[in-house]
Design brief:
The chain is of the alpha+beta class. It has five helices and three strands; from the N terminus they run H-E-E-H-H-H-H-E. A hairpin with a 5-residue loop joins strand 1 and strand 2.
């Protein structure tokens, strides 16, 4: 399946302004905004947070599967897709991240 096909199966994100990713100390290490270019990543991370409760190794593995061809592109071109690179790092043993939803007002 392609990323576009996988994306159609994920919950909507119109209620979100962004997702903040927090480290173990509660510091925001990244933010994914609901804007063109990052809406796919926002939908994936939102789904992972709802399913797994955090972005842990299991969630990261599933996220990379959902990103499909973009996951392969990131492996071939490290740094091209930062939100996928983060999942690859977590899958490889980096600490899990907590997700804080920022709701659209």
């Amino acid at each position: 399946m392609s990323f576009a096909e996988n994306l159609k199966k994920l919950p909507g994100i119109t209620h979100l302004a962004a997702l903040n990713l927090l480290d173990a100390d509660g510091n925001v290490v990244a933010s994914i905004e609901n804007k063109a270019g990052s809406q796919g990543s926002l939908a994936v991370y939102n789904h992972l947070a709802q399913t797994y409760g955090s972005i842990n190794a299991e969630a990261a593995k599933k996220g990379i599967e959902i990103f499909a061809e973009h996951g392969e592109d990131e492996r071939a071109n490290p740094g091209k897709h930062p939100n996928i690179a983060r999942l690859l790092q977590i899958e490889a043993g980096a600490p899990a991240l907590r997700v804080k939803h920022v709701f659209a007002v």
